[in-house]
Amino acid sequence: MLAEVLKEDLVLSEVKSENKEDLIKEIASRFIETGIVKDKREFIEAIRKREKIETTAIGDGVAIPHARSDTVEGLTVVLARSKNGIDFQSLDSKPVHLIFMIACAQNIGKQYLQILARIARLCKNDKMKDALIKAKDKKEIMSLIKGFDAGSGKLEEIKLKKGRTVYPNKKSGTDI
């Protein structure tokens, strides 16, 4: 689930960035430092390209920038926080405080969609969102994420455009 792709060393409990572009670069640097992304420039361009389609700031202080790229190994999430908030051209015009950036290899499809859906579901829970914003450190943040995973049960099916549905793997309860 989410804790499988978001590790404690991928939590930025307070970003230094004050704008969207710097934030994207700051988070991309974390992916580089951990060896998940091999080419920072290529990955940032993939994120920018996705943002041009439509903002990934979904409202209520949350953004989920994401990209699939050949420069990424596997599927990983960085969770970044900004107590002051950052203008991310959000759908509700409010600053974002929680940023879940997803880096994904090109050959991963189903799990990518499941993680996007899982993060969106987590962010619809106002108590969870507030707890993540107020958490004192990375350990507390990870404890909250693991608790969410444990309490929310198995992954659910996702309805796509044109009537398609993505189902989790029935054997393991995941789509891996």
The secondary-structure element order is HEHHEEEEEHHHEE
Share of residues in strands:
15-25%
Overall shape: globular
Number of helices: 6
The CATH architecture would be 3-Layer(aba) Sandwich
Calculate the terminal CA-CA distance, rounded to whole Å.
10 Å
What is the overall pLDDT average?
A: 88
The rounded Rg comes to 15 Å
Q: How much helix, percentage-wise, in residues? A: 25-40%
Got a strand count? Answer: 8
Account of the protein in words:
There is one protein chain. With 176 residues, this protein is an alpha/beta fold. It contains six helices and eight strands; from the N terminus they run H-E-H-H-E-E-E-E-E-H-H-H-E-E. Strands 1, 2, 3, 4, 5 and 6 form a six-stranded mixed beta sheet that branches. Helix 2 packs across helix 3 (40-53). It is globular, with a radius of gyration of 15 Å. The N and C termini lie close together (10 Å). The model is unreliable at 166-176 (pLDDT under 50).
Topology:
Layout: H1 2-5, E1 11-12, H2 20-33, H3 40-53, E2 57-59, E3 62-63, E4 66-68, E5 75-86, E6 96-104, H4 110-123, H5 126-134, H6 138-151, E7 158-159, E8 165-166
Parallel strand pairs: 1-5, 3-6, 4-6
Antiparallel strand pairs: 2-3, 5-6, 7-8
Features:
single chain, alpha/beta, Mannitol-specific EII, Chain A, two-stranded antiparallel ribbon, 39% helix, disordered C terminus
Outline:
This protein is of the alpha/beta class and 176 residues long.
